[in-house]
């Protein structure tokens, strides 16, 4: 008896075969994925994202998720009548704001993501930088130029921190036990206070400490674009400095790419800025020769 030939099945098989060298290359390696607050608003994308992460784990890669939640913190602050101000993309965080940020990030969002991953058949461990001595944060110092006098002045961002010590024992233990760590960007300082950390910065520090094969930053653009709006597929830290100097990159893309530079200079093999609005963008980037987004390496 002959079987009828289904061209769609063949395409699917070819896609799996195309993935083989990547599966072999990345088995046993660690990928850190930063999942931003904007992408979480769409349940379909959240489900796709959870499936991607569970698929990575199923094929022997160790995914570590660091999530944001800026829009959700903003919405909660608004509900409670607390005003929010940003300096260089960082939320000025007083004591009340730090409490709300922790509640939204470590509570609501973290557990929602754990739920999505469970729904996709994975075992997620929801933690923050506070758990297992994962991160110690140091207060971020910033200065701004006074427009009238042109003199640099210190601005107090309150409880905004950056990771200055990372102990990856808990992440590695959980990963080895078959779990997917899901990390909220909140950490204690040596002073025992709670610090609010930009999620990109948190992901970069964790990727560097883990010596991750990749740091994926999922965002709301196709990747880093040139002045004509074309996608730049490969960048080095030197290229990024040029793009910053000639004004090609601005706004939130500046701290994002600074995070990428820091991560690749401190032990992560490469960082990728990727379009989180595209379903399964991560799988396309990892398992096909086409790639997606912008790859940053030394
Ligand atoms: N050259 C550039 N290429 C792509 N995006 C850029 C560029 N310059 C500035 N941006 C801005 O950076 C934004 C991404 O940073 P951000 O809003 O902080 O992302 P997220 O909230 O996902 O962390 C883009 O939406 C875009 O508006
Ligand atoms: C200090 C600081 O700005 N912290 C961020 C933490 C969340 C975050 O970074 O979330 P996204 O990735 O969704 O923007 C904040 O309070 O919004």
Keywords:
two-stranded antiparallel ribbon; binds N-acetyl-L-glutamyl 5-phosphate; globular; 298 residues; single chain; Carbamate kinase; eight-stranded mixed sheet; alpha/beta; binds adenosine-5'-diphosphate
3D architecture notes:
The chain is an alpha/beta fold and 298 residues long. It has a single domain (27-296), classed as 3-Layer(aba) Sandwich (Carbamate kinase), CATH 3.40.1160.10. The protein is built from nine helices and 16 strands. Helix 2 (43-58) packs across helix 4 (95-119), helix 3 crosses helix 4 and helix 6 packs parallel to helix 8. The longest helix has 25 residues, at 95-119. It starts with 6 loop residues before the first helix and ends with a strand. Bound molecules: adenosine-5'-diphosphate and N-acetyl-L-glutamyl 5-phosphate. N-acetyl-L-glutamyl 5-phosphate (X2W) is lined by residues 36-37, 68-70, 73, 90-91, 101, 160, 185, 196-199. Residues 36-37, 68-70, 73, 90-91, 101, 160, 185, 196-199 line the site of N-acetyl-L-glutamyl 5-phosphate (X2W).
Brief summary:
This protein has 298 residues and is an alpha/beta fold. Helices cover 40% and strands 22% of the residues.
List the helices and strands and how they pair.
Elements: H1 7-26, E1 30-35, H2 43-58, E2 62-67, H3 70-79, E3 86-87, E4 90-91, H4 95-119, E5 124-128, E6 135-139, E7 142-145, E8 152-155, E9 161-166, H5 169-176, E10 180-184, E11 186-188, E12 194-196, H6 199-210, E13 214-219, E14 234-235, H7 237-245, H8 253-265, E15 271-275, H9 281-287, E16 294-296
Parallel strand pairs: 1-2, 1-13, 2-10, 5-10, 13-15, 14-16
Antiparallel strand pairs: 3-4, 6-9, 7-8, 11-12, 15-16
Helix pairs in contact: 2-4, 3-4, 6-8
The structure holds adenosine-5'-diphosphate and N-acetyl-L-glutamyl 5-phosphate.
